[in-house]
Design brief:
Length: 499
């Protein structure tokens, strides 16, 4: 092993160890509450705005972001991040006050309070858990392993690299709960964003700060019908996609629920929104564009790893590897912790044992989730275009769940059974348009070409709302009332916006 390689490994280990030590020091001196659930999943409501902002940012930014966003080598992918800024504003202004009003530990608790039914809470939690275990956790391991393998030219199988990533991520989530996750996220974020900005600068320097000459379709923000994001989709499914991800997603909102007050929570979300607007956009598309100008089209999400391996100074590869390793740690351990929170709070305590030993059950649960996500990595290694795959799969459950939140917040006197049935209906409805229609068109070209999956998302939301209200009226015999139509509802709405 060469001296240069030993230095890289040393830097990698030193940076990760430094974050671990700092996290331990913070957690050691933190106050502990007597409530195990609040301590483990909400850090005893003790996170200040800086840790909330750092954890939200790094929970979202992962290797699937760097690999997936830069993979298409097109400017239009930045639209996801710009629209995320709007999603964070909606979280801060509308949903944070609601979650604090109902004293929620999980986002699904809001559904239980609005529908006065624990089964809808359990149903949505179970769907979230399936999404975490089958989609998010394995994709995080796959993209991180692919990046490390591509960047260093390793011959090791992806599943072996994924196992190492999973082991360290699970250690943070299991050992320290949300407090350790949020603190490690924030300090890791300094390294991750710093290295990502450095890669962006080096990429621009390699093309002499000149992106002219790239094909027009790779430099537009308003995509045509065949682009990754057709511009009409910005007015349909993109709105609902961002509303779901930032406002009703346990992995993200759990950080905002761990503040000592609404004011502190909103400060953290606003700070995360500022990072989303000012820092994230350039680092997720510019390296991919530069890679296209330098090397041409790169297949199978390989642009980011290739340009890093080519342009980053050899002596900095250890630091970059540490940053990327930290990026996946922050997202992976956050998802493990939020998945455990959903199971313990919404399922185990509600149906099996309200006095469960939170740490013991969560530990075994997270170990099981980690092992399963490792086993799923080979399945995602066959995909083409990981970011599009993630977004299209999410629609299977995100839009029906978002419809459940919309109905619960806007209407009263809606039977929870109607909404539970609607969630199942919505998943099938979306699958028909997003997956069934393309397969039908492929088998029979005479069938009209399918529209973009974001349009299917918007249609699914509206179809779910209509289906639930019809089911509520004609099957369960209840007449829904539009809650914002009353003076009291308007007063409460203004109070929420003013908070």
């Amino acid at each position: 092993m060469s001296l240069a390689t030993l230095i890289q490994i040393g830097v990698f280990l030193a940076l990760n160890a430094l974050v671990g030590v700092i996290t331990w020091l913070h957690c050691r001196k933190a106050d502990r509450s007597g409530n195990d659930t609040k301590e483990y999943f909400l850090a005893s409501s003790g996170l200040n705005w800086a840790f909330i902002a750092g954890s939200i940012t790094l929970t979202n930014i992962n290797t699937d972001t760097f690999v997936g966003m830069n993979g298409p080598q097109a400017l239009i992918m930045v639209v996801w991040e710009l629209s995320g800024f709007v999603g964070l504003l909606l979280l801060a202004k509308i949903f944070v006050p609601l979650y604090y009003k109902y004293q929620c530990t999980t986002v699904t608790e809001l559904l239980e309070r609005r529908y006065n039914n624990k089964h809808i809470r359990a149903t949505v939690s179970a769907i979230f858990l399936l999404g975490d275990v089958l989609i998010f956790l394995p994709i995080m391991l796959y993209t991180s392993s692919l990046l490390i393998k591509t960047m260093f030219g390793l011959e090791a199988p992806l599943i072996v690299l994924a196992a190492g990533v999973a082991a360290v991520g699970a250690a943070y989530a299991i050992g320290g709960g949300l407090r350790a996750v949020a603190i490690s996220d924030t300090y890791t974020g300094v390294v991750v964003l710093g290295m990502a900005l450095l890669v962006t600068v080096l990429s621009l320097n390699a093309v002499h700060w000149d992106l002219s000459g790239l094909p027009p379709e790779r430099m537009t923000l308003l995509g045509g019908p065949d682009s990754a994001i057709p511009w009409p989709a910005l007015l349909t499914g993109m709105i609902f996609s961002q509303l779901f991800y930032w406002s009703t997603n346990q992995t993200i909102t759990q950080r905002a629920l761990a503040a000592p007050s609404i004011r502190e929570a909103k400060k953290g979300v606003y700070a995360a929104a500022a990072v989303r607007l000012l820092i994230i956009p350039p680092i997720v598309v510019i390296p991919g564009l530069c890679a296209y100008k330098l090397y041409g089209a790169m297949p199978h999400d390989g642009a980011y790893g290739h340009i890093v391996g080519q342009l980053l100074p050899h002596w900095l590869l250890g630091a970059f590897a540490a940053a990327m390793f930290g990026a996946v740690m922050t997202s992976y351990n956050a998802t493990l912790n939020s998945s455990a929170a959903l199971y313990v709070c919404d399922l185990h305590q509600k149906y099996l044992n309200p006095n469960v030993n939170v740490r013991r059950v969560s530990t075994w649960l997270q170990v099981g989730f980690a092992l399963f996500s490792i086993a799923m990595v080979p399945a995602y290694a066959q995909s083409q275009g990981i970011m599009q795959l993630i977004q299209s799969l999410i629609g299977l459950f995100s839009m029906p769940i978002l419809a459940a939140f919309i109905i619960g917040l806007l209407f009263r006197n809606v039977d929870a059974r109607a909404v539970i049935a609607t969630i199942l209906f919505g998943s099938a409805f979306y699958a028909l348009f997003a997956f069934g229609w393309p397969a039908w068109h492929a088998a029979n070209p005479a069938v009209p070409a399918p529209w973009h999956f974001l349009h299917s998302m918007a249609l699914t939301v509206w179809a779910c709302i209509a289906f639930a209200l019809a089911l509520n009226r004609f099957v369960f015999g209840q007449k829904a009332e539009f809650e914002l139509g009353t003076k009291q509802a308007w007063r409460e709405a203004f109070a929420v916006l003013k908070a």
